Amino acid sequence: MPEPCYIPSKMLIHCADVMQTDQNATAFGIHAKLESIDRQFIVQPAFEKVYADAAMIKRGYRQSENVEVLKGHGRFTGPKILAAEGFDEELTAETILIAAGTLPWLPDIPGLDQSPYLTFDEALGLPEQPKRLSVIGGGYIAAQSPHFFGALGTEVNIIHRRGQMRREEDNDVARRFTKVYQRRFNMTLDAQVKGYPLKARRLRSKSPRPTASGRSHQTPCSWPPAESPIQTSLRWRTPARHSTNAATSIPTSISRPVFQASGPGRYCGALPVETQREP
Question: Which end of the chain is more exposed for a tag (fewer CB within 10 A), N or C?
Fold first, then answer.
C-alpha cells in the first residue's frame, strides 16, 4: 500500500522547485511577477494520485492467485513462524518482510496534547495556505515540508533538538543542508523544552509509533537499543533472532513531524512551545 505521507510529497516538492526557480530568476536577469497560487490545484491531484494507486494495488492483490491478504494483527510465535489474527493456521517462510509503516509520533512536550497541532497529512489538508508554520523535528518529512510550504509563501519556523538537520546523512551533506535552510527559514537547533531539560534528552532514544501497535509484553523482543531500532545488513536483512523474538509492534526508524500553524480560518498553537538552547 502506498504511504499517503510520502508519495504525494514528491509531487509537491516539484511544485516548490518550480516556485523557487521563479523566485531566483532575478539572479539571471529574468524579472517575473507572481499573480496567484492555486493551492488546491497543487495539493488535490497529489492525493488523488496516491489513493487511486492504492485502490489499484488492492485490486491487483485480490485478483492475484499468488497473493493472499490477511487483515489483522500478527505476531511471531517461534523461529520464522507468524500467527495472524483471525487466521487459524500459522504462517512460515524462509524470508519474512516487515513493512508495517508508521503513524505520527508525538514528542513528549508538556501542553502539546492541549494544542491543536497538525500532522503532515493534516497540514497538507488545510483549506488555505497558512501564514505561519512551526515544524518540530529534523527528519525526512521535517526537511521536505518547509520547502513546500515556504516556497508557497508560508513563514516557516523549524525547532529541532539536534545541532543540524538530516543528521543521519553524510556529515558534509547534513551541514550544507542545514546552512541552506538557516538562510531560508527561522531555525532553532539544539532545542530543549523549557522546564523539562532532563527528560527532553530521552526523546532521542524513543521510536516512532508503529502502525502495528499493541506489542505483546509476554513475547521477548530483542531489538537493539539504538537510534534505528531494527539493525539490518546492506541488503536490508535482519539477523534471524529478530524475526524469532519480534513482537507485534514492529518499530521503524522513520517518523513524521508535528506542525503548529496559524492562518485564515484556523488558529493552531494556543499553547506555544517554549524552547531554550543547551549551554
Answer: C
Q: Which residues contact 165 (CB under 8 A, 6 or more apart)?
A: 138, 142, 143, 158, 174, 177, 178, 181
| Closest by CA position to 261, among listed 145, 108, 180 | 145
pLDDT at res. 47: 78
The domain limits of the chain are 70-99+214-248, 112-206+254-277
Rounded distance, CA 33 to CA 233, Å?
A: 51
Please give the Cα distance from 159 to 186 (Å, whole number). Answer: 9
In angstroms, rounded to a whole number, what is the distance separating the alpha carbons of residues 101 and 254?
Answer: 9
Rounded CA separation 25/23 (Å) = 6
Contact present, 101 and 205 (Cβ < 8 Å): no
For residue range 157-188, list pLDDT tens digits in order. 998 988 888 877 888 988 998 999 999 999 98
**Hey, which CATH number is domain 112-206+254-277, 3.50.50.60, 3.30.565.10, 1.10.287.1040, 3.40.250.10?**
3.50.50.60
What is the tens place of the pLDDT at every residue in 39-76?
Answer: 888 888 877 887 888 888 888 888 888 888 887 788 88
Q: What is the pLDDT confidence band of residue 237, given thresholds at 50, 70 and 90?
A: low
Closest to 167 (Cα-Cα) out of 157, 158, 178, 159: 178
Read off the pLDDT band of 247 (50, 70, 90). very low
